[in-house]
Fold:
Amino acid sequence: MKLLQFLSPAQESARRQGPQNRIVSSSRVRLARNLQALPFPSHAKKNERIQALEIIQPAVMLVPGMAGAFAESMESLNALEKQILVERHLISREHASKGTGSGLVLGRDETISVMINEEDHLRMQALLPGLQLQRAWELIDRFDTELEEHLEYAFDRKLGYLTACPTNLGTGIRVSAMLHLPGLVLSEQIAAIIQSVNKLGLAVRGLYGEGTEALGNVFQVSNQMTLGEDEQRILARLEKVINQIIMHEENARAVLMEKKPKVVLNHIGRAYGILANAHSISSKETMNLLSLLKLGMDLGLFPGADRALVDEMFLVTQPGHLQQRHSEKLGADERDIIRADMLRECLAAVKRPLSNFPTPPSA
Amino acid sequence: MICCICNKKPATVHITQIEGGKLNKLDLCEDCAKQYNVDAPDSFKLADMLLGLGAGDELARAGAGELTCPQCGFTQADFKKTGRMGCAKCYDVFGPGLEEMLRSMHRGVRHTGKVPRRLQGATGVVVDLTEQIRQMSQRLEQAVAQEDYELAAQLRDEIKALKAKASARREKE
Structure:
């Protein structure tokens, strides 16, 4: 089966709902594992990488619940398919650059995704909408326990699961959540928040992980330390910090509405104006303006509008997803025009924002 | 942009290194850049940056002469260059020199999390429990010293549970 037929339609994928998804768009737990007997991918020869792939891929398919999974080697996927996988957060950008000897297995509902021969032999993740870190951990923990029945992992009593990079030693776990924080950005508190989160040993990154920009005011918060404490403790710390960030974001929004209503209304009104009327717009500008539109919906400025529409626009206007709808190869200029056409069409049904914040019923 | 080493001062020095086709970017403030000798590229090693100051030196001290992994042929120089290990066996070869580096990178130097099922129940687990209790008691002391009583209470309960688990195991054997 071809990847694009396997994947759920973008509309559906973007509309998955979870707890706290006003601010938390998704939760993920990723585990790094390696085979005892073969060199790590970056140091392995081509035939050793192929050997690892041939051992791992069938083992992954044996795990209960992987019936109907999509399995493919990375060399068989074209650039567009890889780009779409990155935009759906199902593979890393690093994995998208891999070819022979690397592979992907994707569970039927796209919750479980296994990268084979990325930086480690195995990078497996459970990805869920909203704030569901504990649930994501349970899913990937169970998956890993099943998989270890079929594979001999590299494990050391003292150092735990052995990984290519010593930064992932021990539990090999990376717990992360994707947060939409326009309030903290607009009120210029985001730098201070990032700094204090860093001090707790957690990392804050952009939309596509390591080394990426925080486009659309989306930030990824994750643990950095993997050795010396167990999975539950790492999860608990992250959960606690994320709940605090949510609180700060809600506070920042409330304070902005109270103290600088015109600034907020101006940002949101302009964002709507451009998105609903532009005839050419870049991916980056789109993401940043859609973030403001989403904020406007959260604050009640678009009564009756479908909030999930913004999430959908966010996904379908990204370069890979845009290209997917067109058979001919599009240049960047053409993409900007088509993107603007799509946005105008989507927003035709959304009325312009209110010129004042609606009074909350409790006030 | 904030310096990626001290996380305090604004980053004014930006470096891009290409290692084995992989792009690594670093953003440093002037003081950290000086401290790490970024101006003299030969003496600046990415492993030091990524893994903490002195990672490369520590490895060099760990074994006089060039250590090589007998299983995969990975050398100390390879580690210094990439910041990655070659295979599982490498940790036996280079591991003894890594302790300080791991300490600066992680919350502890001993794994306390999940253990593969095939290794569970072996005697080693009892050792791990004892170590776990020792580590947690240390953290408990710290928590009390820092007056974080919420954490302290949590730790106290966990230590109690672990001790019960450890004595149950001893009885079984």
Summary: The longest helix of chain B spans residues 149-172. The beta strands of chain B are 13-19, 22-28. The helical segments of chain B are 30-35, 46-51, 55-62, 76-82, 90-94, 99-105, 124-145, 149-172.
